[in-house]
Write a structure and sequence with these properties.
Elements lengths: L2 H24 L5 H23 L1
Helix pairs in contact: 1-2
Length: 55
C-alpha cells in the first residue's frame, strides 16, 4: 500500500475512534476501560501518522 493510501486509511480510522470516544462519553453509563482502550488505539495511529509524515 502506498504511503498516501495508508495515511488516508489511518486518518479515517483516527476520526472513527474519535467519534466512538465521543459517543461513549455521551452514554448514560460510559465505560472507562473502553474509552481508555480507544484512546490508546487513537494514540498509536497518531504516532504512526507522525512516522509516515517524517518520511
Amino acid at each position: 500500500m502506498a504511503d498516501k493510501d495508508r495515511i488516508d486509511v489511518l486518518k479515517t480510522r483516527h476520526q472513527e475512534l474519535e467519534s466512538e470516544i465521543e459517543r461513549e462519553f455521551e452514554s448514560s453509563t460510559p465505560d472507562d476501560l473502553l474509552i481508555a482502550t480507544l484512546k490508546r488505539q487513537k494514540l498509536r495511529i497518531k504516532d504512526e501518522l507522525a512516522e509516515l509524515d517524517a518520511l
